[in-house]
Amino acid sequence: MFDRTKSFETLKRLSHQLVDLTQGSLTPQRIQEMVLQGPSFDLLYAAERVNEEILQALFDLAHEAKATEKMGAMQDGEIINEIEGFASEHRSVLHTATRDVFGSKTAAPEAKKAAELAKREIDKLEHFLEKIGDRYTDLIQIGIGGSDLGPRALCVALQPFHKPGRKVHFISNVDPDDANGVLESIDPKKTLVVVVSKSGNTLETLTNEEFVRERFKKSGVDPKGHFIAVTGEKSPMDDPSRYLASFYIWDFVGGRYSATSMVGGVMLGFAVGFDQFKAILRGAHEMDVHAKEAAPRHNLPLLSALLGIWNRNFLHLPTVAIIPYSQALLRFPAHLQQLDMESNGKRVDKQGRPCTYATGPVIWGEPGTNGQHSFYQLIHQGTDIIPLEFIGFRKSQYTTDLDIQGTTSQEKLLSNLFAQSIALAVGQANANPNKVFLGNRPNRILLADRLDPHTLGALLAYYEHKVAFQGFIWNINSFDQEGVQLGKVLAEKILALFASKEDSDAFTLGKAYINKLND
Ligand code: G6Q
Question: Sheet containing 191-197: which strands, arranged edge to edge?
Answer without folding.
Answer: 167-171, 138-142, 191-197, 227-232, 245-249
